[in-house]
């Protein structure tokens, strides 16, 4: 399918005040289209795409998005400055609003390719990568990182990392306020076992007041977002935004001061039906889209039935849209 493009004048203003984290296997273009029905202002990120996949794989598939997803950022994984610069140019040509470098993923698979959190041990290389991307494009180049890794978890080392990358031209950092333990913990455990240290991230903001610092890690409510925004320039939610997506419906009013009335769950559900019809007409499966919508009924007595319809029953029916409509009926009036 052709790449999407958009002129700067057509795009919504990019703000990092509230964003949804890049999450592998989750924040694909179907997920982002759904989340955009709930919030017009949240910044949405792609799944991490490696430079090798983008340069040597199905580029159009990796970069595909709908125009309604703006503002939308592409997260890259890599450590070769020339490759990252080439991918940043591709992203800019495709119309993305930002390119983000992943310096936070702790998985063994990416470590072996010098991608993700292991790069925190190599601040000079990250700085070189950022400079190469900055020189290649006019869109923002940002970095998402941890507060440290095992063996390099002192505040002095974190400050040195941020300082070197800042000097290379990066003005916006998203800080996951946990260290990553690269030896002995799974990615899931790295999201839960290392303690959250918001105080360390706050110290970074104090020491680098001119940098834009976005806080990530463990944030679950908009009240917590409001509290953190007293210290930080933005907040990024990950799994909470995915499992409880209706939280985004209040974001525009509460965090951006929008007068737009929050969409109801039922209206958000109905807005997805034409999109699903188009996806199925092109040969796709409904489950590709509805798997991202299972949390829309969270908190209601019919939530279990809602999830069953969209995750199991649609596979058993030769009329999946009828099953979709049954699920939508559960959200009537909500």
From TrEMBL:
The similarity comment for this entry is: Belongs to the Dus family. DusA subfamily. Belongs to the dus family.
What is this protein's name? tRNA-dihydrouridine(20/20a) synthase
EC id: 1.3.1.91
Answer whether the UniProt record assigns the keyword RNA-binding to this protein: yes
What are the names of the required cofactors? Answer: FMN
- List GO molecular-function terms, semicolon-separated: flavin adenine dinucleotide binding; FMN binding; tRNA binding; tRNA-dihydrouridine20 synthase activity; tRNA-dihydrouridine20a synthase activity
Active site at 105 (proton donor)
Q: Which organism was this protein described from?
A: Pseudomonas straminea
Q: Which PANTHER family match?
A: FMN-LINKED OXIDOREDUCTASES SUPERFAMILY PROTEIN (PTHR42907)
Q: Which UniProt keywords apply?
A: Flavoprotein, FMN, NADP, Nucleotide-binding, Oxidoreductase, RNA-binding, tRNA processing, tRNA-binding
The record's section on CDD domains has: DUS_like_FMN (cd02801)
Top-rank taxon: Bacteria
Where on this chain does FMN bind? Answer: 22-24, 75, 144, 176, 216-218, 238-239
> Known HAMAP family for this protein?
DusA_subfam (MF_02041)
- UniProt site positions, description: Interacts with tRNA: 102, 188, 191, 304, 307
Q: What class of enzyme is it?
A: oxidoreductase
Query: What is this protein for, i.e. what is its function?
Result: Catalyzes the synthesis of 5,6-dihydrouridine (D), a modified base found in the D-loop of most tRNAs, via the reduction of the C5-C6 double bond in target uridines. Specifically modifies U20 and U20a in tRNAs.
Which residues belong to any copy of the DUS-like FMN-binding domain?
A: 20-322
Q: Which reaction does it catalyse?
A: 5,6-dihydrouridine(20a) in tRNA + NAD(+) = uridine(20a) in tRNA + NADH + H(+); 5,6-dihydrouridine(20) in tRNA + NAD(+) = uridine(20) in tRNA + NADH + H(+); 5,6-dihydrouridine(20a) in tRNA + NADP(+) = uridine(20a) in tRNA + NADPH + H(+); 5,6-dihydrouridine(20) in tRNA + NADP(+) = uridine(20) in tRNA + NADPH + H(+)
């Amino acid at each position: 399918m052709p790449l999407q493009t958009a002129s700067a004048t057509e795009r919504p203003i990019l703000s990092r005040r509230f964003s949804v984290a890049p999450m592998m296997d989750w924040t694909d273009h179907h997920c982002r289209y759904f989340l955009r029905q709930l919030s017009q202002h949240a910044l949405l990120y792609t799944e991490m795409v490696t430079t090798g996949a983008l340069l040597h794989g199905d580029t159009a598939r990796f970069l595909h998005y709908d125009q309604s997803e703006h503002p939308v950022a592409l997260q890259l994984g890599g450590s070769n400055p020339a490759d990252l610069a080439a991918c940043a140019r591709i992203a800019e040509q495709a119309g993305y609003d930002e390119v983000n470098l992943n310096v936070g993923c702790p998985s063994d698979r990416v470590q072996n390719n010098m991608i993700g959190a292991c790069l925190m041990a190599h601040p000079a290389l990250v700085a070189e990568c950022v400079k190469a991307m900055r020189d290649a494009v006019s869109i923002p180049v940002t970095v998402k990182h941890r507060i440290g890794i095992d063996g390099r978890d002192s505040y002095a080392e974190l400050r040195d990392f941020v300082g070197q990358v800042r000097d290379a031209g990066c003005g916006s950092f998203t800080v996951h306020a946990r260290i990553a333990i690269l030896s002995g913990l799974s990615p899931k455990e790295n999201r839960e076992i290392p303690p959250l240290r918001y105080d360390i991230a706050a110290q970074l903001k104090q020491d680098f007041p001119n940098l834009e610092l976005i806080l990530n890690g463990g944030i679950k409510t908009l009240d917590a977002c409001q509290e953190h925004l007293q210290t930080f320039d933005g907040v990024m939610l990950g799994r909470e935004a995915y499992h409880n997506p209706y939280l985004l419906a209040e974001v525009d009013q509460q965090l951006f001061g929008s007068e737009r009335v929050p969409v109801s769950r039922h209206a958000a559900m109905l807005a997805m039906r034409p999109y699903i019809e188009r996806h199925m007409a092109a040969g796709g499966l409904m489950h590709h889209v509805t798997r991202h919508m299972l949390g829309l009924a969270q908190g209601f007595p019919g939530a279990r039935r809602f999830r069953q319809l969209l995750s199991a029953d649609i596979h058993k029916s030769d009329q999946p849209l009828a099953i979709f409509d049954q699920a939508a009926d559960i959200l009537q009036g909500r």
